[in-house]
Amino acid sequence: MAEKMYVNFEMTDDLVDKAYEAVELARDTGEVRKGTNEVTKVVERGDADLVVMAEDVKPPEILAHLPLLCEEREVPFAYVPTQQELGAAAGLNTSSASVAVTDPGKGEQMIDDLKESLEDLK
User: Fold this and answer.
1) For residue 104, which phi and psi values (nearest 5 degrees)?
2) What is the pLDDT of residues 66-110, one digit of tens each?
Protein backbone atom coordinates (compact mmCIF):
# COMPACT_ATOMS: atom_id res chain seq x y z
CA MET A 1 0.00 0.00 0.00
CA ALA A 2 1.33 3.44 -0.87
CA GLU A 3 2.41 5.63 2.03
CA LYS A 4 -0.37 7.99 3.06
CA MET A 5 0.27 11.59 3.98
CA TYR A 6 -1.67 11.26 7.24
CA VAL A 7 -0.14 7.97 8.45
CA ASN A 8 2.47 9.02 11.02
CA PHE A 9 3.59 5.58 12.23
CA GLU A 10 3.38 1.88 11.37
CA MET A 11 0.92 -0.27 13.31
CA THR A 12 1.74 -3.92 14.06
CA ASP A 13 -0.84 -6.56 13.18
CA ASP A 14 -1.41 -7.13 16.89
CA LEU A 15 -2.19 -3.44 17.45
CA VAL A 16 -4.48 -3.34 14.41
CA ASP A 17 -6.44 -6.29 15.86
CA LYS A 18 -6.66 -4.52 19.24
CA ALA A 19 -7.90 -1.34 17.57
CA TYR A 20 -10.70 -3.22 15.76
CA GLU A 21 -11.57 -5.09 18.94
CA ALA A 22 -11.65 -1.88 21.01
CA VAL A 23 -14.02 -0.27 18.48
CA GLU A 24 -16.27 -3.36 18.53
CA LEU A 25 -16.38 -3.44 22.35
CA ALA A 26 -17.12 0.28 22.55
CA ARG A 27 -19.81 -0.13 19.87
CA ASP A 28 -21.51 -2.87 21.90
CA THR A 29 -21.10 -1.51 25.44
CA GLY A 30 -20.21 2.18 25.08
CA GLU A 31 -20.44 4.68 22.25
CA VAL A 32 -18.62 5.31 18.98
CA ARG A 33 -18.98 8.17 16.50
CA LYS A 34 -18.54 7.32 12.85
CA GLY A 35 -17.37 9.35 9.89
CA THR A 36 -14.72 12.02 9.60
CA ASN A 37 -17.06 14.98 10.23
CA GLU A 38 -18.41 13.45 13.46
CA VAL A 39 -14.93 12.37 14.55
CA THR A 40 -13.54 15.87 13.95
CA LYS A 41 -16.34 17.38 16.06
CA VAL A 42 -15.84 15.08 19.05
CA VAL A 43 -12.06 15.55 18.97
CA GLU A 44 -12.50 19.34 18.89
CA ARG A 45 -14.92 19.14 21.84
CA GLY A 46 -12.51 16.93 23.79
CA ASP A 47 -15.00 14.04 23.93
CA ALA A 48 -12.93 11.40 22.12
CA ASP A 49 -11.02 8.70 24.04
CA LEU A 50 -9.52 7.14 20.92
CA VAL A 51 -9.60 7.84 17.18
CA VAL A 52 -9.11 5.08 14.62
CA MET A 53 -8.43 5.96 10.96
CA ALA A 54 -8.36 3.75 7.87
CA GLU A 55 -5.22 3.81 5.74
CA ASP A 56 -6.98 3.21 2.40
CA VAL A 57 -8.99 6.46 2.30
CA LYS A 58 -9.11 8.23 -1.08
CA PRO A 59 -8.44 11.05 -1.44
CA PRO A 60 -6.10 11.10 1.59
CA GLU A 61 -6.90 14.78 2.17
CA ILE A 62 -10.15 13.62 3.81
CA LEU A 63 -8.14 12.56 6.87
CA ALA A 64 -5.08 14.79 6.50
CA HIS A 65 -6.15 17.12 9.33
CA LEU A 66 -7.05 14.44 11.90
CA PRO A 67 -3.64 13.28 13.23
CA LEU A 68 -2.56 16.87 13.84
CA LEU A 69 -5.88 17.73 15.50
CA CYS A 70 -5.61 14.60 17.69
CA GLU A 71 -2.08 15.56 18.72
CA GLU A 72 -3.17 19.12 19.56
CA ARG A 73 -6.04 17.80 21.70
CA GLU A 74 -3.93 14.95 23.13
CA VAL A 75 -6.29 12.29 21.80
CA PRO A 76 -4.60 8.95 21.04
CA PHE A 77 -5.09 7.70 17.50
CA ALA A 78 -4.47 4.48 15.59
CA TYR A 79 -4.54 3.28 12.01
CA VAL A 80 -6.15 0.21 10.48
CA PRO A 81 -5.69 -1.05 6.91
CA THR A 82 -9.22 -0.76 5.50
CA GLN A 83 -12.21 1.49 5.89
CA GLN A 84 -14.49 -1.46 5.06
CA GLU A 85 -13.32 -3.39 8.15
CA LEU A 86 -13.40 -0.22 10.26
CA GLY A 87 -17.00 0.39 9.25
CA ALA A 88 -17.89 -3.21 10.11
CA ALA A 89 -16.18 -2.92 13.51
CA ALA A 90 -18.24 0.22 14.17
CA GLY A 91 -21.46 -1.64 13.30
CA LEU A 92 -22.02 -0.17 9.85
CA ASN A 93 -23.00 -1.95 6.65
CA THR A 94 -20.73 0.48 4.82
CA SER A 95 -17.17 1.65 5.13
CA SER A 96 -15.99 4.40 7.47
CA ALA A 97 -12.83 6.49 7.03
CA SER A 98 -12.58 7.16 10.75
CA VAL A 99 -14.20 6.32 14.07
CA ALA A 100 -13.96 7.94 17.50
CA VAL A 101 -14.60 6.08 20.73
CA THR A 102 -16.43 8.52 23.01
CA ASP A 103 -17.42 5.99 25.69
CA PRO A 104 -15.25 2.86 25.88
CA GLY A 105 -17.80 0.88 27.89
CA LYS A 106 -16.33 -2.54 28.68
CA GLY A 107 -13.43 -1.77 26.33
CA GLU A 108 -11.85 0.70 28.76
CA GLN A 109 -8.97 -1.56 29.82
CA MET A 110 -8.29 -2.59 26.22
CA ILE A 111 -8.26 1.05 25.11
CA ASP A 112 -5.92 1.98 27.96
CA ASP A 113 -3.55 -0.82 26.91
CA LEU A 114 -3.79 0.30 23.28
CA LYS A 115 -3.03 3.92 24.27
CA GLU A 116 0.15 2.77 26.05
CA SER A 117 1.27 0.77 23.02
CA LEU A 118 0.55 3.73 20.71
CA GLU A 119 2.63 6.04 22.89
CA ASP A 120 5.56 3.63 22.51
CA LEU A 121 5.22 3.77 18.70
CA LYS A 122 5.45 7.54 18.38
Assistant:
1) -70, -20
2) 999 999 999 999 999 999 999 999 999 999 999 999 999 998 999
